[in-house]
């Protein structure tokens, strides 16, 4: 893990540059956001936390995709929260989520996947640094970013990535409106000094602005039927190219 701000640690998996974020609280407790992604990653995370004398006191899943709702017994039995709309998806689409884990990161204790409690509150209930929730439906229903005003860290979930294009929730009624609303809410957070994307590199405030501008340009291109020169599509993974083509087809209708 890397300490990106006092008391805020980020681990980055070799799988899709997936980030896990730890916020140090009081008396050995910590807030654990999106622990991911392989069995070995979670074991390493649990080991590092133990070495630091930390144990998860509370956990948050930013959204109900398989790589953001993982857990291991070594992480303990802290309450694991997500936004209410995310918890509904984690329950109703559990089979698909478990399939995703088995295909891409096999070996997890399946009984621990997606066991989330709904939290409809402005902040995560715990005695550590204030952790504000910014909930929207861009990328996935009930997508909840976490902002830590004390350190200026915005844990953005699967938004604001330097390595992934905007990934729309194309089964929603208004994928574009939902995504733009999410971007607006994140852009409006005052005092962001660093952004932690669900996949990619930690960036500073200027980098957050650059990514949001890039995301807006990408959305403008796909919705107007124009080609995009988004750098994140250069030499990208096959799945991202496929997803981009799906976006283009979606807006051609
Ligand atoms: Zn996702």
Folded structure, characterized:
With 253 residues, the protein is an alpha/beta fold. The protein has helices spanning 39-51, 84-92, 94-104, 175-187, 205-224, 238-252, and strands spanning 2-5, 8-12, 19-24, 29-33, 55-60, 80-82, 117-118, 132-136, 143-148, 153-157, 194-197, 203-204. A seven-stranded mixed sheet has the order 1-2-3-4-5-6-7, covered by helices on one side. A five-stranded mixed sheet has the order 8-9-10-11-12. Zinc ion (ZN) binds next to loops.
Q: What's this model, at a glance?
A:
With about 250 residues, the protein is an alpha/beta fold.
Bound small molecules, deduplicated: zinc ion
> For the CA atoms, what is the radius of gyration?
17 Å
Q: Quaternary status of these chains?
A: single chain
Strand content: 15-25%
Rounded average pLDDT: 97
Biggest beta sheet summary:
7 strands, mixed
From the N-terminal CA to the C-terminal CA, the straight-line distance is 45 Å
Give the H and E element order: EEEEHEEHHEEEEHEEHH
What is the approximate shape?
globular
* pLDDT < 50 runs, ≥5 residues: none
């Amino acid at each position: 893990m890397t300490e990106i701000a006092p008391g805020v640690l980020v681990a980055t998996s070799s799988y899709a540059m997936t980030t896990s974020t730890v916020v140090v609280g009081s008396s050995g407790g910590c807030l654990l956001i999106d622990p991911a992604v392989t069995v070995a990653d979670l074991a390493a995370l649990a080991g590092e936390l133990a070495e630091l004398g930390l144990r998860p006191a509370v956990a948050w899943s930013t959204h109900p995709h398989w790589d953001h709702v993982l857990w291991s017994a070594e992480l303990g039995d802290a309450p694991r929260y997500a936004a209410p709309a995310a918890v509904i998806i984690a329950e109703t689409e559990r089979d698909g989520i478990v399939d995703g884990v088995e295909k891409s990161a096999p070996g997890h204790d399946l009984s621990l996947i997606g066991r989330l409690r709904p939290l409809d509150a402005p902040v995560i209930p715990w005695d550590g640094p204030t952790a504000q929730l910014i909930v929207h439906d861009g990328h996935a229903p009930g997508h909840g970013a976490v902002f830590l005003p004390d350190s200026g860290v915005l844990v953005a979930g699967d938004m604001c990535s330097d390595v992934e294009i905007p990934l729309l929730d194309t089964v929603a009624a208004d994928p574009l409106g939902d995504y733009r609303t999410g971007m607006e809410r994140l852009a409006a957070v005052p005092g962001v000094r660093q952004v932690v994307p669900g996949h990619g590199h930690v960036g500073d405030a200027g980098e957050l602005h650059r990514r949001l501008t890039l995301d807006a340009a990408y959305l403008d291109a796909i919705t107007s039927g124009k080609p995009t020169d988004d750098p994140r599509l250069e030499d990208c993974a096959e799945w991202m190219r496929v997803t981009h083509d799906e976006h283009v087809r979606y807006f051609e209708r």
